Amino acid sequence: MLERNGGSRHTGAVQRFVRCEADGKICYAELTDNRVELFSAAPWNGGTPTGVRHDLADTRLLCPLNPSKILGIGRNYGAHAREMGAAPPQTPLVFMKPPSALASPGELLRLPKVSQRVDYEGELGVVIGNRARYVPREQAMDHVFGLITTCDVTARDLQKSDGQWTRAKGFDGFCPVASSITTGLAPTPLQLTTRVNGEIKQQANTSDMLFDIPQLIEFVSQVMTLEPGDLILTGTPEGVGPMSSGDVVEVSIEGLQPLTFRVADA
Ligand code: MG
To answer: What is the mean pLDDT of residues 24-46?
Structure first.
């Protein structure tokens, strides 16, 4: 259970889950030190430990989730809304990214030829653990499986010219995620830092969100049923900026596996 009195950041056992290819099979697995234990299915779909273990070095890590949908939240930090010249939203601003935007660990971020400006947006990702439909905020954390470091890559010029965001946010590879999901950690307060080529570009705390995770789950679950394994990107803080071919982007969030990716031309 989530401790709501601010004392502990832990909501249960801290575990890390990956998806990997081992012995020619693709499996979800729990990662402990440098070993993985394979699961019978995704842990949010009732998967259990199989007792089969491998050295991490003998596996190939894959994108650790396979969601039915990815929700994004726009302008969920006041300072970022201001840097975009926008007023903070009165209700959560929801958009979608297609699951085809997910990238596997180590995959290059390819800059699309049709955009002249592609930005990083370091963000905390929330992975749903139990189906959520009309969930009140007081019960929302019971529907969270875990947390993951993400980047909501955005073609800023297309976002402005199109007026809606599907193309700007939806290119293949525009949702790189860390190689593991962490359970048992409260989503706030966690320090979030984005670096490009080692230089700090974004630095904020998840407690600065305008709408917190329970409010987001309550709001989104009034619109569409959230399924186990679905991903919510909870918005980016101020300091967004463009990426160029050759850049190395690192998003780190306290307690979570960091996300690192390299940028390349199309
Ligand atoms: Mg974003």
So the answer is: 97
How many angstroms is it from 52 CA to the middle of ligand 1?
38
Residue 220 CA, ligand 1 centroid: distance in Å: 16
Structure-block tokens of residue 70: 């990815």
Distance, C-alpha 50 to centroid of its chain = 27
Residues 50-104: pLDDT tens digits? Answer: 999 999 999 999 999 999 999 999 999 999 999 999 999 999 999 999 999 999 9
Q: What distances in angstroms separate CA 112 from CA 107, 116, 169, 195, one per listed residue?
A: 15, 8, 12, 22
Map out the domains of the chain with their CATH numbers.
10-14+65-265 (3.90.850.10)
Compute the distance between CA of residue 97 and CA of residue 236 in angstroms, rounded to an integer: 15
CA of residue 240 to ligand 1 center, whole Å? 9
Tell me: the pLDDT tens digits for 216-240? 999 999 999 999 999 999 999 999 9
CA 68 from centre of chain: 14
Residues 6+ apart with CB under 8 A from 21: 27, 59, 60, 62
